[in-house]
Amino acid sequence: MKNHIKALRQQRELTQQALAKLLGVSRQTVISIESGRFDPSLPLAFKLARVLDAPIEAIFDAEEG
Amino acid sequence: MKNHIKALRQQRELTQQALAKLLGVSRQTVISIESGRFDPSLPLAFKLARVLDAPIEAIFDAEEG
DNA sequence: TGCTGAAGTAAAGTTTGCTTTACATTATGC
DNA sequence: GCATAATGTAAAGCAAACTTTACTTCAGCA
């Protein structure tokens, strides 16, 4: 599932480390989600939406598999 | 994470079995998510939003932990 | 009565999300 | 040159999502 976290994070001038801290996860988790290694859990997706100030549907591409 | 899947499913007159088939998961998964045993993955949450014709934020309560 | 559909619980097992640790690369600045 | 910050990869291990199977309960109906 593709996402625009990297772009949104950079717009907010947040490092991966800073975003990880805001989300309460490790830096590896941020890297892995940004690079598409895996999808975040639903609670984490909601936190991302709150931290990045964007609706979930705007952060993730709902394209089908 | 609380959700309104059961109510939305019943409004659409879908059985758990029918919803599971539409989502491409097992009936157990539908039961477990409806009853709050665990949260769906993000891809599954998107499928739920599509099948139930409601935005993710309307299906799940984003209350903080 | 007994059958069938819908909803529910439980347990074992696989897959995926997440953590922790360690190491590599690139850029900035002393 | 050396240190530090930011990004990235990889691997081992734990936790949560999901599957499969099996069993239970309740309602409706012939």
Automatic annotation (TrEMBL), chains A, B:
Any one Gene Ontology molecular-function term assigned to this protein's record: DNA binding
Residue stretches in coiled coil: none
Domain HTH cro/C1-type: 5-59
Pfam families listed in its UniProt record: HTH_3
Record key words, sorted: DNA-binding
Statement: the UniProt record of this protein carries the keyword Nucleotide-binding: no
Protein name stated in the entry: Putative transcriptional regulator
Organism: Andreprevotia lacus DSM 23236
